[in-house]
Amino acid sequence: MKESLIKQLEAKNANVAHFQDLIYDYLQLYDTKKMLQKDIKTRGVSYKTLSASGVSIMKQNQSIKDLVAVEKQMLSILKEMGLTTDAPTGEDVMNDDL
After folding, report:
1. pLDDT of 6 strictly over 80
2. What does the domain layout of the chain look like in residue ranges?
3. Can you tell me the distance from the alpha carbon of 54 to that of 50, in angstroms, rounded to the nearest whole number?
4. What InterPro entries does the record point to (predicted)?
5. Which of 47, 51, 94, 96 is a plausible cystine mate for 43, CB 3.0–4.6 Å?
6. What is the DSSP string of the chain?
7. Could you give the CA distance from residue 88 to residue 1 in angstroms, rounded to a whole number?
8. How high does pLDDT run on average in the chain?
């Protein structure tokens, strides 16, 4: 993924330090996204826990909201750099076999 994003920057003559830093941020967010997805898969959308007073309650998994925020930020980074995840050069790919 990193190589694809860098190739796109190079194709746009935009491989500058600021955008390289944004790619690093994007990859960190990608790792966070995977961890949130794993937590949701493990605990579910909601989970049983104990309240401060020791009563069993159902609680919404915060990872649901966090996942939405992380994905939104990832898309924002790609948009700022004018990049896509579709093709290494950012060009539309046509497949005649479809």
Report:
1. yes
2. 2-81
3. 5
4. Phage_term_ssu_P27 (IPR006448)
5. 47
6. -HHHHHHHHHHTT---HHHHHHHHHHHHHHHHHHHHHHHHHHH-SEEEEE-TTS-EEEEE-HHHHHHHHHHHHHHHHHHHHT--SS-TTS-----TT-
7. 9
8. 88
